[in-house]
């Protein structure tokens, strides 16, 4: 299912887009992006139509906000989309690294080093990107700037680590189809849960899809956790209490590459806000959630899971402006 060597060329070109000097930026973009490309970005950026709009609405603002910015990829994989929407895609977990010296999306800068994490899916035709979906973890950037508007009450807030095996960038070993099979088996059983224990069938134990020592790396506001018990305690219980009717898995893309798999929905989830969540009282509003999940599999189970959620958009639907709240903090 891999797209190598096209995947490897795209990896190099994306890194070059942010390293390029300004006088070479447009030429670099022409080689990488189709003229009519469409970028769907997390809130508050939203959709950009065409190469020039992508440069002016995404690439240049990021270069201006994070001085001397560069990509630091933790996962970069590619494959044919298993969903009916089709297409060849590459997907990445990356950090945009630089000194946070200029405002980004209205967020006041810290003046210090920042690792802005992102999840990215790119559809590729004839060696160039024609479509992208990108989630920037702005709540985590707020945390790094010392102005986190969400209460610290869930998992451990931390920099996303790379895979324990250190082979997530353009992997060369493993069976991508088998990796995606494991993930899809997990997802199919995850929908139903016991409201008392928040357990779902076939997640753990002898028939489970998760390794006993699973690691789950969550976005800003949720944080990361260890083992299934930590996942329930530090994420699942709070989320399902707040959104008990959530339905997920509405994915436009699912790919596997080596020991890795990635899935994304835009939105993936629909749900109703029935309980308190991260300091927000229940609103009874119908909500949607954009999701990206990246997995490393080992011995037929999921060992690590990196999760990007568009919480800027979710909290806006609940009536909360996280950037305004962050900027109001000292």
UniProtKB/TrEMBL annotation:
Classification via PANTHER family? ESTER CYCLASE (PTHR38436:SF1), POLYKETIDE CYCLASE SNOAL-LIKE DOMAIN (PTHR38436)
Listed under GO biological process in this entry are: polyketide metabolic process
Name-wise, this protein is: Polyketide cyclase
Enumerate the SUPFAM superfamilies for this protein: NTF2-like
Please tell me the species this chain comes from: Roseivivax isoporae LMG 25204
Q: What is the lineage of its organism?
A: Bacteria, Pseudomonadati, Pseudomonadota, Alphaproteobacteria, Rhodobacterales
Instruction: Note the superkingdom of the native organism.
Output: Bacteria
InterPro entries xrefs: Cyclase_SnoaL-like, NTF2-like_dom_sf
């Amino acid at each position: 299912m891999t797209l190598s060597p096209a995947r490897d060329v795209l990896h190099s070109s994306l890194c070059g887009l942010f390293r390029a000097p300004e006088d070479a930026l447009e030429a670099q973009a022409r080689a990488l992006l189709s003229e009519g490309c469409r970028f769907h970005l997390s809130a508050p950026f939203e959709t950009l139509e065409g190469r020039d709009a992508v440069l002016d609405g995404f690439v240049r603002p990021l270069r201006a906000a994070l001085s001397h910015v560069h990509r630091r990829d933790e996962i970069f994989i590619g494959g044919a989309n298993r969903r009916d929407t089709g297409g060849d895609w590459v997907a990445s977990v990356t950090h945009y690294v630089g000194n946070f010296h200029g405002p980004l999306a209205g967020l006041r800068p810290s003046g210090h080093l920042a690792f802005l994490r992102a999840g990215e899916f790119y559809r590729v035709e004839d060696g160039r990107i024609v479509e992208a979906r990108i989630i920037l973890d702005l709540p985590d950037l707020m945390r790094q700037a010392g102005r986190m508007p969400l209460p610290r009450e869930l998992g451990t807030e931390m920099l996303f680590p790379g895979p324990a095996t250190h082979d997530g960038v353009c992997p060369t070993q493993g069976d991508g189809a088998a990796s995606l099979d494991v993930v899809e088996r997990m997802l199919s059983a995850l929908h139903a849960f016991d409201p008392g224990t928040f357990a779902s069938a076939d997640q753990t134990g002898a028939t489970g899809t998760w390794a006993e020592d699973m690691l789950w790396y969550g976005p800003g506001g949720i944080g990361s956790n260890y083992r299934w018990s930590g996942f329930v305690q530090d994420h699942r219980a709070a989320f399902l209490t707040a959104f008990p009717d959530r339905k997920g898995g509405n994915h436009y893309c699912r790919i596997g590459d080596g020991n890795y798999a990635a899935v994304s929905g835009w939105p993936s989830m629909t749900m109703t806000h029935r309980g308190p969540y991260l300091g927000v009282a229940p609103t009874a509003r119908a909500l949607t959630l954009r999701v990206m999940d990246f997995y490393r599999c080992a011995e037929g189970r999921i060992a690590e899971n990196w999760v990007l959620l568009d919480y800027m958009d979710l909290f806006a639907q609940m009536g909360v402006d996280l950037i305004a709240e962050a900027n109001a903090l000292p």
